[in-house]
Amino acid sequence: MVGATGVVGSTILAVMEERGFAAGEVVALASERSAGTAIPFGGDELIVRALSEDAVEGFDLVLMSAGGGTSAEWAPRFVEAGAVVVDNSSHWRMHDDVPLVVAEVNPDALAGHSGIVANPNCSTMQMVVALKPIQDAAGIERLVITTQQSVSGTGKRAVDELLDSTHRALHEMAPEAPVAYPHAIAFNVLPQAGSFKEGDAYTDEEHKLENETRKILMQPDIGISATCTRVPVRVGHSESVNVQTRDPLEPDRCRELLAAAPGVVVLDEPARAIYPLATEAEGRDDVLVGRVRRDPSHPRCLNLFIVSDNLRKGAATNAVQLAELLHERGLLRRAARA
User: Fold this and answer.
1) Pick from 36, 50, 56, 91: CA 20 to 30 A from residue 191's CA?
2) Contact, 196 vs 205, CB < 8 A?
């Protein structure tokens, strides 16, 4: 586990422990400053080792959640040493020779790996789990997406900033200047998740939703318009998604398809205030879907509300699921040579 002390890395280790991940040995790697840190695991402790030239040998599988720069540098080294890398950064996702995989959506893509498998962006991940049964049944022509993304997607610093700024506001204390975001996040909604490049009206998070969705669903012609926002929620991304299907699809039939899909839980009794909530998603691996209804402006459009724990299914759990599938299908390189 590379990036073992980060928010996602520590969640990956927790998910591995919960699922009884079948590893002969688990090694925690991180930056030099984290070396020596003790991490609880399996009733014992893992002592974090520094990521170094000497640390890449002897592994069958490497789970990486240490940022794009680290992944770009170190993933090929692990592959050269004989391991398969499941990477959580954005660096490898759109490489043609790297499969971008969601366990419930396109697991067969794993067979095409050349040593690296990419984990999608958390917002893309939960959405395509819900879209796959719709695509299979009625086709998808166009998506209009608005996300409400929690601060844990930015990391521990953003979570701490939300808690501190909320505490200060509630106790009528002077606010501190925001660090994680360009504006204060407490009691606010920022119409920006991700960063803007010069001359581009869309953020990198919005482009990830567009490009990754098309790659995972293997449909490059889907029209996609995305707006990603940041909200004062600790854990759990929410998405309002307008789906234009190729063939007519009634809301009741859509609910049936979703209820039968792996990894999806339908919560859709709005008159009784039953619908997906970030607080209900936290700590779960399910993708929660509700508010399924006809778009009155178009005969082949449905509206959905999709919520999931961005640290678990949106990142850690899928990475562990992919690792399990690689093992089960004999796609680990050392296992294949044996």
Assistant:
1) 91
2) no
Q: How far apart are CA 44 and CA 255, in angstroms?
A: 44
The number of C-alpha atoms within 13 Å of 49 and in the hemisphere containing its C-beta is 12
Q: Which amino acid is at 198?
A: E
CB count within 10 Å of CB 296 equals: 8
Domains and CATH numbers, the chain: 7-120+315-337 (3.40.50.720), 124-310 (3.30.360.10)
Question: How far is Cα 27 from Cα 126, in angstroms, rounded to an integer?
Answer: 29
Torsion of CA 53, 59, 65, 68, to 10 degrees: 50
DSSP secondary-structure letter at 312? Answer: I
- 119 alpha carbon, distance to own chain's centre: 7
pLDDT band at 328 (very low <50, low <70, confident <90, very high): very high
Q: Which residues are catalytic?
A: 122, 237
Distance between CA atoms of 150 and 235, rounded to whole angstroms?
5
